[in-house]
Structures are given as C-alpha cells and as structure tokens.
UniProtKB/TrEMBL annotation:
It holds the Pfam family ParE_toxin. It comes from the Bacteria. It comes from Allocoleopsis franciscana PCC 7113. This is Plasmid stabilization system protein. Keywords: Toxin-antitoxin system.
C-alpha cells in the first residue's frame, strides 16, 4: 500500500534553500540532491514503518549521498513530512513542528 505524502509548508522552503546552495556549489548538484530526496520520499511512501522513531512518533529516514534526513509521522494512511533537515542543524526547530 502506498501512503499519501502530505508536506508541512516549511518543507518547501527547506528544499528550495538546500537546492540553491548545492547549485551554487556546482551546477547540476541541486538536481542530484532533489533526485536523492525524491527517491527517499518514494521509499517512505511505500514502507513508512521501515524507519526508526527518533522523537515521540516522528521517524527519520536519512537521504543517500547528502547530509539530510526526512522527518515524518504516520497518521492513518498518510505520511506527514514535517521536515527535510540538514543533519548538523539544531533538531529543536523541527521538533517544534510535531
């Protein structure tokens, strides 16, 4: 069963910021970043229970090749993505979104 992915509004800003930063480092790297995030989101949509709970009912899936993780909650038949977050940032900012 594929779960419906629902994104908090802040997630778009986080992705845009990361994409812009990677593109400024090397042309095309931003697209590679988005491809890796998309691959992880597809995996989460297919098997959301596969990833560990890291805070209350929030799970974390680490993005391949980049120091980012997807934080999400499973609610009924939906996956609510609360953050796509750089691993070195303060986790209190995404924890406040739960």
């Amino acid at each position: 069963m594929n779960y419906a992915l629902v994104f908090r509004p802040e997630v778009r800003d986080e992705l845009d910021e990361a994409y812009s930063w990677y593109e400024s480092q090397q042309q095309g790297l931003g697209d590679e970043f988005l491809d890796c995030v998309d691959e992880m989101l597809n995996r989460i949509g297919q098997m959301p229970e596969s990833y560990a709970v890291v805070y209350r009912d929030v799970r974390r899936a680490v993005v391949r090749r980049f120091p980012y993780a997807v934080y999400y909650r499973i609610v009924s038949s939906r996956v609510i993505v609360t953050a796509i977050f750089h691993s070195r940032r303060d986790p209190k900012s995404w924890q406040a979104r739960t």
